[in-house]
Specification:
The protein has four helices and five strands, in the order E-H-E-H-E-H-E-H-E. By secondary structure, it is an alpha/beta fold. It has one domain: Response regulator (Rossmann fold). The protein is globular and about 35 Å long.
């Protein structure tokens, strides 16, 4: 089973993602609402996550802090954001994210 970390402070988005991901029995998803929760899960499951879906706009994290944390743990990441800005996109691509979903 593949472990995936999903972090977003919007409960509606987490609920939608949880519903869709639970349709696949080969994915074990872990959900966090904040940077602190994500960090706790990363420490608790160190080296176990195969991928992450990350919101970069969390109230308790600076702009790219969560991405840097995922990169530190060598987790391929897809970014979830509502900010459609070419400069931000370029900066995220340089951080080795797999993709950005606007």
């Amino acid at each position: 089973m593949k472990k995936v970390l999903i972090v977003d402070d919007d409960q509606k988005i987490l609920t939608l993602l949880k519903r869709e991901i639970n349709k696949h029995d080969y994915i074990e998803a872990y959900f966090a609402h904040s940077y602190q929760e994500a960090m706790s899960l990363l420490v608790e499951h160190k080296g176990e996550f195969h991928a992450a879906l990350l919101d970069i706009n969390l109230p308790d994290a600076k702009d790219e802090e969560l991405i840097e944390l995922a990169t530190f743990y060598n987790i391929p990441s897809v970014i979830l954001t509502d900010i459609d800005d070419e400069k931000i996109e370029d900066a995220l691509i340089k951080k080795d994210v797999i993709n950005i979903i606007f």
